[in-house]
Amino acid sequence: MKVDEFLVERWMNQYEHDVKYNLAETCVDPFTLAEFLDFVGRPDFFEEFQHKQLTYGYIEGNPLLREGIADLYADVNPKNVLVTGGAIEANFNSFYSLVEPGDTVICVAPTYQQLFSVPKGFGANIKILDLKPENRWLPDLEQLKEHVDNKTKMIVLNNPNNPCGSLIDEPTLRAICDLAEDVSAYVHSDEAYRGLYIDSKSKVPSVVDIYDKGIAVGSFSKPFSLTGLRLGWITANEETVCQFMLRRDYTTISKSMLDEALAAEAMPHIEKILERNNKIVRENWKMLDDWISKEPLLDWIRPTAGSVAFIEHHIDMKASELCLKLIKEKSTFLVPGNCFNHSQYLRIGYGNNKKLLSDGLEQVSDYLENI
Ligand SMILES: Cc1ncc(COP(=O)(O)O)c(C=O)c1O
Question: Domains, the chain, ranges and CATH?
Answer without folding.
Answer: 7-33+271-369 (3.90.1150.10), 53-268 (3.40.640.10)
